[in-house]
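Why do we care about 3D structure at all? Because function follows from shape, and shape follows, mostly, from sequence. That is the central idea of this module. The next example makes it concrete: a single protein chain, its amino acid sequence, and then its structure expressed as tokens.
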Amino acid sequence: MTQFDKQFKVVIPARGGSKGIKRKNIQFLNDLPLIAYPIIAGINTDRVSNVYVSTDDKEIMEISKSFGAEIIPRPPYLAEDNSIDIDVMRHAVNYLKDFGNIVHLRSTTPMVTPEIIENAIKYFLKDNDCTSLRSCHECSETAYKFFKKQGKYLEGLFNNELEGEYYNLPRQKLPKTYQPNGCIDIIKPSWFMHHDSLHGEKMLSFETKYMYEVDTPNDLRILRMIHDQDRK
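And the structure:
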């Protein structure tokens, strides 16, 4: 594969002020900080030319550079609790002055591998109509069995779509539903730089095995146990 074929760049958002787990992006999983996993996976993917970490935090910058990433310095106003991905990605595109397709990885889904990234890119390139690609896994329980609260009472999520007590039907009679898992997205600046939508209306489904996401201290404990078990 020539350098010309390396047409994708990885962008990993990693702000310093995470709340669910303090300093989440640099918490250790086995012998590596979480941020190292997507960096290493991206660097070892054939079709990826560069791996960038978008961060406001100096320690995250130094750790990311030590594993081979390049840095996009993120301004503080884009690293707040209510900052959204589309604004972070627009800043990255403007900083890099590059409108090529972006592989969006996250340190909170460290199970990503070069093989997953490569397969996602190949799948993405086969579909000229998609506005993005988004990884997901099948929900263990269909969302058609879920409820929302209306005051103190439960109400089906799809009451305005389906009639009767559809949520009491056997699960085999209900549609499968899929959870986006943060493992990998591929997004198009040609789309999101001109629309108020990061992924657009034609999100290409890239189905993976179940992926553990690190959002809470308990998530991190579970993932550490899984990794420890895999090493034995």
